# Entry
Amino acid sequence: MVDSAKITLRAGNGGNGVVHFYRGRFVPRGGPDGGNGGKGGNLYIAADANLSTLDHFAYKQKFEADGGRKGGESRSSGKAGEDLHLKVPLGTIVKLTKPTGEEKIIDFDKAGMEELVARGGRGGRGNWHFKSSRNTTPMEAEEGQPGETWDVEMDLKLLADVGLVGLPNVGKSTLLSILSNARPKVADYEFTTLEPNLGVLRLATGSRTKSIVIADIPGLIEGASEGKGLGIRFLRHVERTKLIVHLLALPNGEENLPVNEAVEKLADNYEKIRKELAAYAKALTKKKEIVVFNKIDLLSAENVEAIVAGLEEKGIKAIKLSAGSLAGLPDLKKALSLRVRK
# Structure
């Protein structure tokens, strides 16, 4: 998944004005009639809800709108350059910088949003503009003005209501698949998920249906904020979420740990991820959060209750869940519906 890109944008240059004098069958020495050059094409960027990555900028880094054509005779203007329209996924932040140092930032956070980012150059004036009582045969015309040029940095931050976080192999992708229409790759080893996956959970609320967009955020391990694992590459996608769902699960092969050790292990794992979120951006730790104790089907009911009680004593209130057997799923859906406000 390409979620950042650096490109150059250039609007079209204006066409040149021309020097021309009218010549007719009975008018061998007519007046100036050189036309104006056409305006250069503008360059626009629009948000497209059907795109999910910046892949289309991976192999081409320079985009240029058409230039205007030169003017013609009989005061005819040159054809304007075609505008160029580029599309980016929802959630893309575009930073534009000119060689002069001028900067502007545009956040494409609404579907259908379109912005003019580079203006085409004005066409040059033809020689008929320069005719005067003192200069009846002007030999001058203007060159077209150059189009605006910007160096551009693009960063995609997914627009999701809910971000699923947790250490690798705690069941984030499985949970996404049962909550939504997403079909992420699921396997029993770390880093199955190599890019964020999006799904939509639809909940009936009376006569209405609430749609909640959920993102499975991969790559969070201890040191992620410093780039370890899949690291900082995906932490950005948590920033826009309204709610974090933090999944906890005992590592494979440790399901039979004594209750007190299991509680310490889960609490430690919880703090590891919270620490990475805070190291990336402290605001992430202030977001609304639901903690989910997953894979309870692998433990005895007695141990599950004891572990949940032990976590609560440490200030971690967790919803019990088995993404495999679906136990606890109604409770999680209810919590999501209450915590995500539309």
